[in-house]
Amino acid sequence: EALAIVEDHPIEQVITEDFITKFEKAAHLYQDRYLPLCIRLTNEADWINHGKPTTPKYSLQSSGAEKVCNPLGMVWDRPVVTKHERSDDQGKYYEYEIEGVMTSKVLKRYGWFTGNCSSRDQFFNARGRFDEGDIRKAAFSNWLVNAVTRLAGIRNPTPDMLNRAGLKVDKIGAIDYSGGAKTPEQETQVISEAQVKRLYAICTTAKVDASRVAEAVKERTGAAAFREIKKKDYTNICAWVESGAPEQPPKEGGEARE
């Protein structure tokens, strides 16, 4: 006996001129109004460019995800936190995994999402000093960003989309994973707002007067304020402050980290 496929709504009945007209209108509202409006809730410091100058790839940070949560009614129960002990040919390490369901009451949709961070994370190992709590919090931030951006549909925005939302892409911080030589333009780029805030936080944690740091930085690098610090000097300055800001001023050079 031959098998037959029975459709509740055959495609010729669903894809009609009326459907296409309504769908085009919905797509216009989504692309030209909804997405820019969601992104407009954030600012340049809430994004990071993980790509290259010719092929940028913008990712929302946890600070930006938090700003989108309330307007879209994002809610969640306590997520599940799991610590994995792992090992390979490079030795032992651990990874925190966060998983849970997030719901947008405004968009009327929900999903199950995961987030993770391991003790081999590039950022923390570049910093040289971190504790297990840092890894756990970073895993939660990763979960939050994954959930919010996927539910809201704002992953990987184009430069044009960011511009339409009122953000200036040239003010968005970038991460250079290559470790290679920097162009003259890269050498003169200043740190982002998020990096300025991080430097102030390091001063507080290390119990070092921020004004004394500012004076030393100005004497050594010529930067009149934290926001004028060049990315090439940022890492060494942070390391100097974390060590208690000894009399020896920070060295010039060093990759910038968020």
Brief synopsis:
The protein is α+β, with helices and mostly antiparallel strands. It has helices spanning 11-14, 17-40, 62-69, 122-127, 132-152, 159-164, 184-187, 193-206, 210-221, 231-242; strands at residues 47-49, 58-60, 74-76, 80-88, 91-104, 109-118, 173-174.
Structural notes for this entry:
With 258 residues, this protein is an alpha+beta fold. Among the domains are: 60-156, Double Stranded RNA Binding Domain, CATH 3.30.160; 183-242, no CATH class. Helix content is 43%, strand content 17%. The protein is built from 10 helices and 7 strands. The strands form 2 sheets. Strands 3, 4, 5 and 6 form a 4-stranded antiparallel sheet that branches. A 3-stranded mixed sheet has the order 2-1-7. The longest helix is centred in the first third of the chain and has 24 residues, at 17-40. Residues 179-187 and 254-258 have low confidence and may be disordered.
The assigned structural class equals alpha+beta
- Oligomeric form of this entry? single chain
Instruction: Provide the β-strand percentage band.
Output: 15-25%
Estimated helix fraction: 40-55%
Secondary-structure element string = HHEEHEEEEHHHEHHHH
Q: Low-confidence spans: pLDDT under 50, at least 5 residues? A: 179-187, 254-258
CA-based shape = globular
The CATH architecture category of one domain equals 2-Layer Sandwich
Overall residue-averaged pLDDT value: 86
Radius of gyration: 23 Å
CATH topology of one domain: Double Stranded RNA Binding Domain
Number of helices: 10
What is the terminal-to-terminal distance? 65 Å
CATH class term of one domain: Alpha Beta
Largest sheet: 4 strands, antiparallel
Number of strands: 7
